[in-house]
Design brief:
alpha/beta; Leucine Aminopeptidase, subunit E, domain 1; Aminopeptidase; 2 domains; 6-stranded mixed β-sheet; 20 strands; about 20% strand; elongated; binds ligand BES; binds manganese (II) ion; binds zinc ion
Length: about 500
């Protein structure tokens, strides 16, 4: 997609389709004040004819612009933003999602976008953040995963260029917003593509190769991929115990980006990279098991974020760690009751082989210590219990550092890739007691998302740490099955504006 910025009146911007953001009720025609009067009058008439009210996400395509002379646009899309006083980030997002859908259906090849937020300065978000969000939504809304289809897509995306109509004073901010939005969208696309690939294509080895390939386009990224022998030398016994039940060898992907002062402590991002999770000997039920190809979404988001951070040349040091493995039943797989020794030296009784993510992550957390990190954030499709607790709107957030958790909460609010915090109280730690090892890998049926977080916390004592459980947010199930690219926006928002 090409993006342009114009400071002209909206009806002077030539386009296949002009999108006009409108508030609800009698107020909305006033947002047409930027238009020539004759034009505004005709539009108001057409909108009345078709009972357009301006409710959030409501759209009206006027196609062609019958009787409206003098407009430089071929079509007009009225976009409802709801009541002016009630406008918030959620409504801007909802409106933009609806606009992108209507634009795709309209067959317009290019569009001009006029929003009160950008054009007459009514700010819930500043121009930079609005444009950033819009670009992210436009790119997400036009994303297709057709790599494995031999027959052509019946709904090709025609939209190829978008012009933001903005106030002069906000040109520089909007330019920055475009650049950031494009980088975030790029990271999301990378993450979604990797995640949507099936387990027989996207193996730990494939994930490692793809991550290493990024060095070609991203000279400031250093990627190293450790193999099984190297993991043995590191004594990553918990991680390796999961991998030994699979014919695919494990990988630890290490991505380094040094854009900040050499002495600045890095942010370490750790992403769960289970390229397929069948549960192991504690085998999962068959229904929807295909979706466990998405158990590497945390890892994919970390790879996407590192690439996006490099693209933006952020003045930070960021490390990405992705432990990658399969979890399958096999003669050599972990058995319930097995005791393994983690890299940290703590022994773990594996009471359920399907609680495998934490076994990879605990060794990656121990590895993270060598970077003397400012903060460590792990991202994982860790527990079905997190979906039970929170549903599929926010990701679960846990951590040992209030300021870090607060920064992530706020970053999520701003880009609308939200998280909700769950407690990691000591009382819950009791549930992880084992008769035979230092701790058990499951904590029973109560508070499963939290006890998973508690397990990880035992390996994260030496640095500020947060855990983001993306089990409910990383992909959509059902008819629109597919990876969402979350929480790339959250992490980028945090890295761009929120690192305290
Ligand atoms: N990858 C799954 C968690 C998951 C399940 C994410 C469904 C999204 C949808 C994880 O490895 C797992 O199997 N967790 C178990 C833990 C349990 C055995 C304590 C779970 O959630 O059932
Ligand atoms: Mn599992
Ligand atoms: Zn898993």
């Amino acid at each position: 997609m090409d993006y342009h910025l114009k400071t002209d009146a909206p009806d002077r911007v030539p386009s296949d389709c002009l999108v006009l953001g409108c508030y609800e009720e009698r107020k909305w025609p006033t947002t047409l004040g930027a238009l020539e009067e004759r034009l505004a009058d005709s539009i108001v008439k057409l909108a009345k004819r078709d009972h357009f009210e301006g409710k959030v996400g409501e759209t009206l395509l006027i196609n062609p612009l019958d009787g409206v002379e003098g407009a430089r646009c071929e079509r007009l899309l009225l976009l409802g933003l709801g009541k002016r006083e009630a406008l918030d980030i959620a409504k801007i997002r909802k409106g933009l999602v609806a606009a992108v859908k209507a634009l795709r259906d309209s067959k317009a090849k290019n569009a001009a976008l006029w929003l009160p937020e950008l054009s007459i300065g009514e700010r819930v978000l500043d121009a930079r953040a609005t444009v950033r969000l819009a670009v992210e939504i436009i790119e997400s809304g036009t994303y297709r995963f057709a790599r494995l289809k031999k027959e052509a897509d019946d709904k090709p995306v025609r939209l190829g260029a978008v012009t933001f109509v903005i106030e002069k004073a906000h040109k520089a901010a909007a330019e920055r917003g475009v650049r950031e939005g494009e980088a975030i969208a790029y990271g999301m696309r990378l993450a979604r593509d990797l995640a949507n690939l099936p387990g027989n294509v996207c193996t730990p080895t494939y994930l490692g190769t793809e991550a290493a390939k990024l060095m070609g386009d991203h000279p400031a990224l250093k990627v190293e991929v450790l193999d099984e022998t190297q993991l043995e030398a590191l004594r990553m016994g918990a991680f390796l115990s999961v991998a030994k039940g699979s014919r695919q060898p494990p990988r630890l992907i290490i991505m380094e980006y040094h854009g900040g002062p050499a002495k600045a402590k890095p942010v370490v991002l750790i992403g769960k990279g289970l390229t397929f999770d069948a549960g192991g000997i504690s085998l999962k039920p068959a229904a929807n098991m295909d979706e466990m190809k998405y158990d590497m979404c945390g890892g994919a988001s970390v790879i996407g974020v590192l690439a996006a951070v490099e693209k933006l040349q952020l003045p930070l040091n960021v490390i990405g760690l992705v432990p990658a493995s399969e979890n399958l039943p096999d003669g050599n797989a972990n058995k319930p009751g097995d005791v393994v020794e983690s890299m940290a030296g703590l022994t773990i009784e594996i009471l359920n082989t399907d609680a495998e993510g934490r076994l990879l992550l605990c060794d990656a957390l121990t590895y993270a210590k060598r970077y003397n990190p400012a903060a460590v954030i792990d991202i994982a499709t860790l527990t079905g219990a997190c979906i039970v607790a929170l549903g599929r709107h926010p990701s679960g957030l846990m951590g040992n550092h209030d300021a870090l958790c607060e920064a992530l909460l706020q970053a999520g609010e701003r880009c609308w890739d939200r998280v909700w915090r769950l407690p990691l109280w000591d009382e819950y730690q009791e549930q992880l007691k084992s008769n035979f090892a230092d701790l058990a890998n499951i904590g029973g049926p109560d508070g499963g998302a939290i006890t998973a977080g508690c397990f990880l916390s035992r390996f994260a004592k030496d640095f500020p740490w947060a855990h983001v459980d993306i089990a409910g947010t990383a992909w959509k199930t059902g008819q629109d099955k597919g990876a969402t690219g979350r929480p790339v926006p959250l992490l980028m928002q945090y890295l761009i504006e929120g690192v305290a």
